[in-house]
Amino acid sequence: MKKNIFVLMIAIIISKLAAFAKDIVLSYYYGASDISDAYLVSLAIPMVVFGVIGTSMASGYIPMYNEIVKDHGVDRGVKFTNNLINLTLICCSVLVLIVLIFTEKVVLLFASGFNRQTMELAITFTRINIIGIYFIGTFYIFEAFLHQNGNFSASGLTSLPVNFLLIVFIIISFKTDSMVLSIGSVLSFMLHTAILLLLSVRRQYQYQIVLDFKDIYLKRMIFIMLPLIISSSSQQINQIVEKTIASHIAVGGITTLSYAQKLISFLKDVFVLSIVTVLYPNISKMAAEGQMDSFRKTISAAIDCICLLVIPSTIGMMIFSKPIIELLYHRGAFDAQAVSMTSESLFFYSLGLTAFGIRSIFVKALYSLKDVKTPVMSSIISVIANILLNILLSRYLGIGGLALSSSISAILAMILLYISLRKKIGIMVAGKSAATFLKILAVSTGMGLSAKLCFEILKTIFSQNLSLILSVCFGVMLYAAAIALARIETVDTLRDVFIAKIKSMLINPSVKKQFPFSYIIRLHR
Q1: Are the C-beta atoms of residues 126 and 100 closer than 8 Å to each other?
Q2: Which 8-state DSSP code applies to residue 250?
Q3: pLDDT at 30 exceeding the cut of 80
């Protein structure tokens, strides 16, 4: 399992770095402007329209595919996959038709604050980008198929050629016509899905024309998906409200908010998603077998791991929010005002990063216990709170208020989920986890302040960007040293696991290079 986490983490890092390179090029040529706002909104529309179904479909597909393969073999599993793909393409056709007919109304939902010129741009972009929904829909299925067959790195690694293609089209669009941006986006969706298709073929996938609306497994999967769709829909509604309010606050508001979100998303995906993705099947098995003691300890260990990685990142993002944005984006058309708005958003988004990570673990834990209702209800409550806070705080803090609202709602959702989970499984080593949290917070705060002092001193000698890089490196080394001396059980456990595994590999090279969660549980005992 640990090997899978590491592989997935590396793949996500590569994916996010490639995406950052694309964002930097986009910000260089278009800055935070009406064109970038219109383009990003048009890009969000197909993602939101099918994202609701796609993410839910991927979550429901994996357990259903497992059951089919177990009962009927791989061929039946592939047939089910093809049936799902064909039905998805039909759904996509209906959605494309609706968006093409009601394009202006759809864009108004996302950005009612656009002036007429920006609105016309967004409408034109959307009519091109919506074609990408065909590839987005099938992408989710192929990605889930590959994950189920042990390939966790494909989606991340394929982002390199995809983002390179986007960079080329961004440059061409600046020199020719901005419409080329959307053409490049559709081609990138196509390329990404085509690569996953080829990789799936290598894992025994073969396309067939299958269309069976009465498939019993399809009906059961839809039943699993329904509560997930409700949960995903509430999150997408939240995004729509955020973008709409941002479009009223300032020109470039959507762009600056998007860039801050992507930086936070980088940390979420690297530190949270990579752990949660591999954790889920393990705790699901524990729950199914009634191993509740191991279940509780695994959840606690996962929370500690999230805190170890995310809390120092949160402190660092908050302290260095402006220098980070200046390093990444302050060039070309991305001016000082755009830097100010983006760094403010990054600061406030960072506040909810740890809560988001822990919330993700609680959601998967409840799913493992076959409780879908609780995560859905908490999601709806947090989204309602977020929308109300968006309206209130944006009046006083502008774009930053939208980011702060998101963080507060994440904290609220985490608390609600914790209360529900505790009622189901009891205390999750609460005393130890609380002590671990406080130790990590204290060490992270000290690291952040020391790195800030180092940054101010180095600025008198070197450039700001070099000073930032050196200060971050200093902070990472200081944190690693301090956390090793802090007598945190999870750190000691991971160290013991690593040493024990290295010794076993030296003694017996045939031992698999994996660090399963069961080792951590065993050492916790």
Answers
A1: no
A2: -
A3: yes
Sequence letter at residue 264: I
Query: 342: buried, middle or exposed (CB in 10 Å: 19+, 13-18, 0-12)?
Result: buried
Q: What is the pLDDT of residue 256?
A: 87
Check if the beta carbon of residue 319 is closer than 8 Å to that of residue 448: yes
SS3 277: helix
Evaluate if residue 173 carries a pLDDT over 90: yes
CA 44 to chain centre: 15
> 12 in helix, strand or coil?
helix
**pLDDT of 244 higher than 90:** no
Q: What is the pTM of this model?
A: 0.74
Distances (CA, A) of 24 to 28, 30, 186, 493: 6, 10, 20, 40
Q: How far apart are CA 476 and CA 420, in angstroms?
A: 35
Calpha distance 321→132 (Å, rounded):
33
CA Rg value for the chain:
23
Confidence of residue 276 (pLDDT cuts 50, 70, 90): confident
**Spatial contact of 346 and 325, defined as CB atoms under 8 Å apart:** yes
Owner of token pair 């908490």: 378
What residues have CB less than 8 Å from 196, skipping those under 6 apart? 139, 142, 143, 146, 154, 155, 158
Among 269, 240, 241, 224, smallest CA distance to 18 is for 269
| Nearest of 451, 433, 440, 432 to residue 482 by alpha carbon | 440
Distance CA 64, CA 287 (A): 17
Measured distance CA(5)–CA(274) in Å, rounded: 6
d(CA 312, CA 346): 15
The per-residue pLDDT for 15 is 74
Domain coordinates of the chain in residue numbers?
Answer: 1-30+34-242
Cβ–Cβ < 8 Å for 321, 348: no
**Calculated CA dihedral for residues 155, 160, 163, 168, nearest 10 degrees:** -150
